[in-house]
Structure formats: C-alpha cells, structure tokens
C-alpha cells in the first residue's frame, strides 16, 4: 500500500463545553478520495478542525492516528510536518506577511535545515501553480489573505496544498462561495494532486464539487456521527433526493447537533 | 511633585556656547530668553505617565566627535545605516556634537537645495532659518523641555527645498551619540517650498547602558502649498538615555506630510508627533511603531489636528510590549471648527507579549465641526491564537509563526522607510528587541 493512512476512531469533540462530535469513525488511505457530506450543523467542519488541532476544539474521547502515530499528542505544526494539511473554510488574514514569504516558510518548515528550497525553484514552482489556479501573479506579494475575496482565499488554500504536497489533505468546504468557473479551477488543482500516495478528505454540503472531483467513498454526517457510507453513487442519490430519505431510514428527526439552551 | 534640580548650564555658559559657534544675535537672544523661561516653566504632563523624576538635567552638553574622511572609517554598526552600493550623495553624519561627515549632490545645490548641519545653517542662512525656527510648529514656551531645547540646542540639520524642486533620492541623517554621556539636543528643520517634494530619513543611535544622559530633540517640518514631505526615522537610543522627542509638522494648502517613525529606544521615552493640517485639502499619514521591553516606560502621542477644509488625516500606531515594560499610546484626531469635509482616521493596536507588560491605547477624537467623517479602531491583546493556528497548520513552528506575525504587525513603518539599509537595520532592531 502506498502513502499514509489516517485513522479516526470513536472521536468525541467539544467546543466550549458543548459536544459536537459524538463518536466519528473514518479511515483514509493514501490514493483515496473521501467525501464527507451532510447538512449544515452536523459536525463536518468540527471534524476537520479537530484533526488539525484548532485551539478551540477539545477532544474528549477517541483517537486520531496517522500511520499509527498518535496525532492528538502532536502540536499543530508537528501534525503538518507529519503530513496533514487542512484547507480552511475561513483562513486567517495576516497583515504585513506576504503570501510568498509565508509559502516559503511553510515549505521550508517541512524540510531539513540546510535543505531549504532555492529561491529560483520556489518562484518557478509558485508561478506555474498560480497559473494552473488562474491566480493573478501579484497575489504572491500581497499580504496573506488580507483583502482577498472569498474566491481568492479558496484558491490560495489550494495553492498552498499544491506547493506543500502533504500526504493527507482535508478540504473544508473549499467550494463554498465559488462560482462555477472558480469551482472548476479549484477542482483542476485538486485533481492534479491525485496519485497513489495522496489521500484526501473533502468536506462539502453540496454535491456540486463532486461533479468535478470523483470521490472513492462518500460518508454522510448527522448528529455528530458518520451515519452512512457508500460509493460515488451515494452522493448522486443525495443530489437527486436530498437528505430526507436517510433521516427516514435511520429515524432521525433533527439531524443537527442541537444548540445550548 | 517636581524635583528641583537646577541645570549646570547658566546664562554665561549659553552666551559663550553661542559665541563659540558664531551664531547670529537673534539665536543667542532666543537661547537666553529660553533659558530664563526654562526656570519657571513646568515639565510637560504626558497623559498617564509621570516623568517628574526622569533625568532631563544630567548630561554632557558639548562633546566633540572625530571627523572622518571616508565612510569606511565608521564602525560597522554605523555603516549598517548606509546603502553601500549607492554613492552617498545626500548625507550628514553627526557624531556627538560634531559633524563628522557631510555631503550633498552638486546638482541639488545648484537648484538651491540646502542640506547642512544646524550650526552651519545658522551662520550661512541665518535669515532663512530665523523665519521658521520655533515659529510655526513648536514654540519655545510650551513647557520646560521645549525651553531647555531652545536654550541648549547643540546639533541637528536644516533641509531647505526651493519652490518646484523635486528631490528623487532620499536625504539621510545619522545622529550618533557616541559618548555615553553626551546629550543630543538636536533641532531638525525641514522646509519644503511650494510644489516641492522631498524624502528625508534619520537614525538616532547610542550604546550607553549604565551611564546616564538625556536627549531632547525637536523636529519642525513645514510643507508649503502643494509640497510633499515624506519623513522617516528610526530612534534607537540605548537604555541610559532618557528621551524627549518632539516631531511636528505644519501642512499648508494641498500639501502632504507623511511620517514613518520606528520608535525603538531602550530607555524611558516621551515621543510626540503632531501635525497641523492648516491648509485646505492638506493631508497627513502618520505611521508609528514602537517596542517596549525590560522595565522601560514610554509615552507616545500621535496627533493630527485639522484646520483646513477637506483635510485628511490618518494615524496608525502599532506597539509591541514585553517583559515589564509599559507604554501609553495616545492617538488624537482633532477637527477644528470650520474644517468641514475633513476626514480623521486612526488605528491604535498594542500587542502584549508578556503578562507583566502594560500597554494602553487611547484613541481620542475631538470634533468641533458637523460636516466631517472620522473613525477609530483600537485594540490591546495577545497574539491571535487563530492566526498562530493557521500558520502552524502549514508546519511553521510556534516561535516562527509568532515572529512572522510580529514582524507583520510592525511592517507598516518598515515598508515605508525610503532607504533599504535603514529598512534592514530596523528589521534587525525589531528582531533583537523581540527575541
């Protein structure tokens, strides 16, 4: 088997005392594309943030393993260095730090000291990937995400993905707020990543993105759990019939996690 | 409560000092008048900072510095301020109270540009200096420190740009307090005549930790109708020097004054930067950054006061506080009655790197006119954990992520400094102070 394996076992996660994930199980192998779907408020983004180690999310039970290593014991930067990547739904804006300086620091953080990427190679690499993503060249010199439109931020996340080349990537609603042309461009970038070693977890609540990126497996989340898994045909059926049939099948009335009183 | 410490410098001393420099009579009289006033005037009272026990009286007033023939004779830490790949055409280096090196491009000279040390300016361009010296911007009798400054001024430069002259290359000054006890009492006078433009950048530097002195510097920038002055500075006095820094601009019709100030002193500091937008459609953009560390106490004021109609002012103050340092950041946008269609914007942000540090951001808008726009944003806080998370999620260590965020936070001033070497040097100072 090529690539890495990310295993999520019985994962329970709280935010500010409210339990959001209530026992998620999922395994992603190198070479596989998984889609996690579900209506809003069912815990999809929480899953992404918990895997990466967002400071607001607390794992109360369960395990996340990357090639058998305990991810939960790692700092956020160690998770990235181990091969995880999260394309964020709401990437931070960081004033005064240029996109290109940030990208270079990111790439060099994955490399040994003394083996930093040469400036020439970096620029060449970045230019060609920005071209794939149809990004304006001057975005390299703009401050990281500052004043970027929604679509520019998403493309910038995918640019980082393509430059860093992680073992396993999680894409958190990378399609939200994109028009159809931008969606195609982003999908093209992600499809370029496809190989035997690269594993990807695509979180979305629209089937739309999956018209351009075909998943190997599709999972549906409700009430903080994966309630149904299947092949690409599952997402097709969701597109046609919505989520109600799953709720009926499983006897779920309210698919969301529920709010605090 | 003020501690009464009388100065070791009296009327006789001041007269002799002035005569020694062959100053014009008006200057000698101005000094003597100021000396007398300094005896009765009070110290300034910066908001929330008590400076009554700070050292403004213990220092050496007249210390010679060695003159150099070539810039190569300077120590490396002073050469760091110079763009070496360029010929240094417009440069004054002041060493203690002596001009060690001075150069100005012949072409500019031919156009009537004056860039020279203050003592020479008083001898050679007395009338021109007199017209502006502590008249329109800073006044002798504002408080004890302005009076002391006027009485004991012992350095600085005069930069005069005639009408319609556009200077492309930056004009640079380096003020080096080489002697640990020498007191720089510099007067910087920049006059840009109608429709002229100039970029000026200065560095203050000293290396005195144990030995105490004080600095008392006044800058006046006069931008006539349609003129543009871009003023950059990096203040980097060491911890032994107590600093009073007063930089003031007066902007007439359609003129622009831009400030980019890196306030990197290690000792107790009061620094005020005030711009009067006198003329209609005048404009000022005042960007300042500061770092506090150790146990130093600092008080920063950035003030833009609008008199002219349609005048536009933007203040940015960013401060980083660590250890047990404390600092007050006053941002004041003032619109006087009659200054209709004016716009006063400001942003004050303080980043706290330790729990024992103290930083106050006081944004103040004083508006005496209806038809205006104004806005302010202020924040005091730690490094944003979500920003850290974002950078770290790309494999960047926490240390490096913080470093990127802090450099980014202070970038507005670094970016605007006109000389590459000065930019680089400020980046190094930031690096050294924060880590």
UniProtKB/TrEMBL annotation, chain A:
It comes from the Bacteria. CDD domains: ABC_FeS_Assembly. InterPro entries: AAA+_ATPase, ABC_transporter-like_ATP-bd, ABC_transporter-like_CS, FeS-cluster_ATPase_SufC, P-loop_NTPase. Keywords: ATP-binding, Nucleotide-binding. The keyword Chaperone does not apply. Residues 6-248 form the ABC transporter domain. It holds the Pfam family ABC_tran. GO terms for molecular function: ATP binding; ATP hydrolysis activity. The keyword ATP-binding applies. Belongs to the ABC transporter superfamily. Ycf16 family. This is Iron-regulated ABC transporter ATPase subunit SufC. It comes from Halobacillus alkaliphilus.
UniProtKB/TrEMBL annotation, chain B:
Residues 178-409 form the SUF system FeS cluster assembly SufBD core domain. Residues 25-172 form the SUF system FeS cluster assembly SufBD N-terminal domain. Coiled coil: none annotated. One of its GO terms (biological process) is iron-sulfur cluster assembly. Pfam families: SUFBD_core, SufBD_N. It comes from the Bacteria. InterPro entries: Fe-S_cluster_assembly_SufBD, SUF_FeS_clus_asmbl_SufBD_core, SUF_FeS_clus_asmbl_SufBD_sf, SUF_FeS_clus_asmbl_SufD, SufBD_N. Belongs to the iron-sulfur cluster assembly SufBD family. NCBIfam families: sufD. This is Fe-S cluster assembly protein SufD. The lineage of its organism: Bacteria, Bacillati, Bacillota, Bacilli, Bacillales.
């Amino acid at each position: 088997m090529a690539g890495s394996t990310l295993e999520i076992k019985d994962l329970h996660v709280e935010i500010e005392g409210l339990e959001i994930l209530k026992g998620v199980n999922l395994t992603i192998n190198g070479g596989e594309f998984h889609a996690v779907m579900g209506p809003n408020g069912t815990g999809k983004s929480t899953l992404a943030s918990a895997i990466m180690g967002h400071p607001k999310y607390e794992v109360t039970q369960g395990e996340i393993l990357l090639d058998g290593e305990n991810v939960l014991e790692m700092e956020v930067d160690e998770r990235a260095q181990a091969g995880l990547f999260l394309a964020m739904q709401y990437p931070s804006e960081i004033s005064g730090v240029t996109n290109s300086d940030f990208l270079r620091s990111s790439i060099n953080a994955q490399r040994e000291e003394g083996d930093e990427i040469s400036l020439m190679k970096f620029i060449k690499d970045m230019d060609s990937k920005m071209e794939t993503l149809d990004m304006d060249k001057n975005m390299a010199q703009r401050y990281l995400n500052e004043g970027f439109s929604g679509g520019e931020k998403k493309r910038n996340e995918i640019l980082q993905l393509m430059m860093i080349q992680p073992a396993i990537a999680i894409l958190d609603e990378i399609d939200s707020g994109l028009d159809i042309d931008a969606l195609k461009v982003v999908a093209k970038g992600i499809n370029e990543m496809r190989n035997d070693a690269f594993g990807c977890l695509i979180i979305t609540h629209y089937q739309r993105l999956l018209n351009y990126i075909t998943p190997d497996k599709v999972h549906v989340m409700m009430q903080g759990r994966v309630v149904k898994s299947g092949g690409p045909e599952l997402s097709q059926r969701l597109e046609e019939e919505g989520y109600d049939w799953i709720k009926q099948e499983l006897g779920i009335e309210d698919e969301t996690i529920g709010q605090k009183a | 409560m003020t501690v009464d410490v009388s100065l070791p410098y009296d009327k006789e001393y001041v007269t002799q000092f002035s005569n020694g420099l062959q100053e014009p009579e008006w200057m000698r009289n101005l000094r003597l008048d100021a000396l007398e006033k300094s005896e009765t005037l009070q110290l300034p009272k910066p908001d929330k900072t008590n400076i009554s026990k700070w050292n403004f009286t213990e220092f050496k007033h007249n210390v010679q510095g060695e003159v150099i023939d070539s810039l190569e004779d300077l120590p490396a830490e002073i050469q760091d301020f110079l763009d070496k790949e360029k010929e240094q055409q417009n440069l004054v280096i002041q060493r203690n109270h002596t001009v060690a090196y001075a150069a100005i491009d012949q072409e500019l000279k031919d156009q009537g540009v004056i860039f020279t040390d203050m003592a020479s300016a008083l001898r050679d361009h007395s009338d021109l200096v007199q017209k502006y010296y502590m008249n329109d911007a800073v006044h002798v009798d504002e408080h004890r420190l302005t009076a002391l400054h006027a009485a004991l001024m012992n350095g600085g430069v005069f930069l005069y740009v005639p009408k319609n002259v556009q200077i492309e290359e930056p004009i640079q000054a380096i003020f080096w307090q080489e002697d640990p006890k020498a007191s720089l009492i510099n007067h910087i006078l920049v006059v840009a005549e109608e429709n002229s433009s100039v970029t000026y950048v200065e560095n203050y530097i000293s290396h005195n930790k144990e030995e105490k002195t004080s600095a008392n510097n006044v800058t006046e920038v006069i931008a006539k109708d349609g003129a543009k002055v871009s003023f950059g500075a990096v203040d980097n006095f060491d911890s032994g020097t107590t600093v009073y820094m007063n930089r003031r601009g007066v902007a007439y019709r359609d003129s622009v004054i831009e400030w980019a100030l890196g306030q990197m002193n290690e000792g107790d500091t009061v620094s005020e930067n005030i711009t009067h937008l006198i003329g209609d459609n005048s404009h000022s953009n005042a960007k300042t950054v500061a770092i506090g560390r150790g146990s130093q106490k600092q008080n920063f004021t950035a003030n833009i006061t609008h008199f002219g109609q349609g005048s536009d002012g933007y203040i940015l103050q960013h401060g980083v506080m660590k250890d047990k340092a404390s600092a007050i950041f006053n941002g004041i946008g003032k619109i006087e009655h009659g200054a209709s269609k004016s716009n006063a914007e400001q942003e004050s942000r303080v980043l706290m790197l330790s729990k024992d540090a103290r930083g106050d951001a006081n944004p103040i808008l004083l508006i005496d006119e209806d038809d205006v726009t104004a806005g302010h944003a202020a924040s005091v806080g730690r490094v944003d954990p979500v920003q850290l998370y974002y950078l770290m999620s790309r494999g960047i260590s926490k240390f490096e992520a913080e470093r990127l965020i802090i450099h980014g936070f202070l970038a507005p001033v670094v970016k605007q400094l006109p000389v590459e070497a000065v930019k680089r040097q400020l980046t190094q100072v930031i690096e050294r102070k924060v880590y």
